[in-house]
Design brief:
Distance between the termini: 25 Å
Number of domains: 1
Shape: globular
CATH superfamily: Gcn5-related N-acetyltransferase (GNAT)
Helix content: 25-40%
Largest sheet: 7 strands, mixed
Strand order of the largest sheet: 1-2-3-4-5-7-6
Number of strands: 7
Amino acid sequence: MIRKLDNTVYENAKLIWKVFQLSYSVEARILNTENFPPLKRSIKNIQESNNNFFISEIEDVVNGVIEIDEELESIHIQSLVVLPSEFRKGVASKMLDFILDLYKKNKITVETGVDNIPAVNLYLRFKFNEIFQWDTDHGVRKIRFELIN
């Protein structure tokens, strides 16, 4: 089940933060970086975010989180994370399907590390197009994707 979660509630923000920490720790290793900004994000920052947060649950266990920054004509997928124990089980695909069905926007964008092959393949499978790549100041090469409806 996928549902919206009120991130302003401390316990909800803490839950989101825990999933972020577990998933982004793996991504930091994949990207070979120790200075990974998503791991520095605080519970307070999540609580204060104006973005929309959705969680995926199986048997009352949260196994994924997707964070959406909604604009008038577009959305940006700010975060899409899955518990490491749930990797390769279709959780990210189900969450992405849910979001694409929920938000009928003209443009959807997302960014990930170039070396995060599972994420890159996910977005390509959903027909996102690569827009550009760049090097961050924390040493990670990133890629931006866009889906035009």
